[in-house]
Each structure stands twice: as structure tokens, then as C-alpha cells.
UniProtKB/TrEMBL annotation:
Keywords: Cell membrane, Membrane, Transferase, Transmembrane, Transmembrane helix. The lineage of its organism: Eukaryota, Fungi, Dikarya, Ascomycota, Pezizomycotina. The keyword Transferase applies. The keyword Mitochondrion does not apply. The chain crosses the membrane at residues 41-60, 72-95, 115-144, 156-174. It is a multi-pass membrane protein. One of its GO terms (cellular component) is plasma membrane. This is DNA, SC005. It comes from Aspergillus oryzae (strain ATCC 42149 / RIB 40).
Amino acid sequence: MTWFSLASYWLTNSVIMDIVGTPSATNKNKGWPFGNDATPVVNNFVKISYLVFLMLQYILALGNRPKGSKVAYTLSFIYFSIVQLYILVLSFYLVAQAFSGGNLDLNLDDGVAGFIGSFFTSTSGLVLIALVSTYGIYFLSSILYLDPWHMLTSSWAYFLGMPSSINVLMVYAFCNWHDVSWGTKGSDQAGSLPSAQTKKADAKTNFVEELDKPQADIDTQFEFTVKRALSPWHPPEEKEDANLDDSYKRFRTNLVLLWVLSNSFLALCINNEGIRNLCLTVVRPGILRLFSGLLLRCRFSGLSGLCGFWARLGCCVVFRGVDLNFE
């Protein structure tokens, strides 16, 4: 699921903006918060600028130092935080509309059975379950840990920074897969060995000493020189040695291509009905329900694992207390 977090985050934001902000005749939904005419335009602008800032991260991560691009990275963090704040406001509005009898596709006329049936089959109900399972886990965990105050003081910074950790930090990590020096803090550089201190003595006179050679050695050296002078000249063959750094960069390139193409393919498969619908101006309940169902199943599996961990932790605490009482 982490591999497709780039596409899943984009799809989640798009689905929430479409459900809340795009008017639809099927569920009698009204555009909120800017009205039926302005809200789709604002949402489309947010989506286009979201993709522009996402492409900017690849340009910044491929060869640029973060310290040399402070302004661009700062603007990216601020923009993704604003988008996340906007999505949180829409999510809370969606939850409030669902439980206050708003104009969502929930059956409120046939009693509890009709409401439950429509809740688990409608797009809005699935999105609501996904939101509650996502943010409710944090609140429930903090209450079980008997430290719920950080949810009021520090959770807002974590929630606003979640898209930046995926769209900025993860993109930088993938694009710099070949370079391990930025995470080692200099530990990859070997220290220099101690060297001996030498001092050249000043000679009074320079002289050349020639040793006497036997005649056979002189003839052999002369014959070798003549043969080398008479032999035709052949250009030296350049052998390209395998460079370890090039292999790392090639692996990085293939990894980034596979990551980007797989996430793009997932996004296009879920909301693709042609180039015109890439702006997501029309709500497609079938496609949205499919994505929401997949998201709900992933969240439910994570919630089930967390409940199992809580149960095991509770048993350990109980048995530990029993052992202490016997002691």
C-alpha cells in the first residue's frame, strides 16, 4: 500500500472534493463551500496546481540540493498543508452532513435498516467509514494510552504535514536512491591515514650516473627500438569499465519510472473515461464506490491488526498484574 501512496492520496483528495463540491443530480448534492458554480472551478484549480507542485518535486529532487532550493521546498510544504487543511474541512462537513440528514445519498426514510443498508452501499458511507477508521484510530489510541492531550495540541501539525511526507520526502527519497551520502552524515567517507613527514635534502651538485651495459643488452634494446619504429600504428582500444555509480543511477532511473508509471496507471484506471474526464468534473458513483471500497478494506485490515495488538497488550498487562500479586 505504501508503494501506491502517491496515487491513493491524490485519489482520496479528488473523491472527497467531488462528493462535497460537485453538484450531482443522483444524490441531490450541492456544491460546498463556494456554491454550485464556483466550487467545481476551485476544486479543479486545486487539482491542477496539486499536480504542478507534484511534478516540481521531481525537478527539484533530480540533481538539486535542498539547501539550494529552500524557497521552492518551502512553498511546496505550505501549499500541500493548505490543501490538506481544505480536505479536512470538507471531510468534517461530509461527516456532519451524513449524521445530520444532509443531502447525501443515504436513505433516511426507511428506518434504521434502510439507513444501514444505504450507508454500506453508498459512496458517501464508504468514504465516511474510511475517514473514521483513518482519524479515529489516532484518537482511540491516544485515549487507550491515557495521553489524549497531544491530539489537541500536536495532531494538527501531523495531519497538515502528512501530504508533504508523501509528495515531497518520498519523492526525494526515490529520486536519490543512488546517493546514500545524504543519510549517512559523512560516515561513508573513510578517514585519511597518518602519513610520514619527509624532507628533501638539498644536494650541492646534480649529476647523472650511467652504468656500463654489456654489448648484448645494447643490441637487444636497439633491435626492439627499430622494430617498434617500423611497426604500423594501431589506435588504442578504449575499454569502458563498468562504473558502480552509473549502475546505481541506472537502477534509480528504472525504480522511479516504475513507481511513477504504476501510480499513474492506478489513478488513470480508477478515474479515466477519456482525456476530458481527467479534470474530474463529473462524479461517477461506480468508480468512486470501487475506490472507496478498496480504501475501506485496506483501512479495515489495518484496524483489525491494531485491535489484535491491543488485545494482546491487554492480556500481557493483566497477566503481568497477576504475577505481581502472587509475588
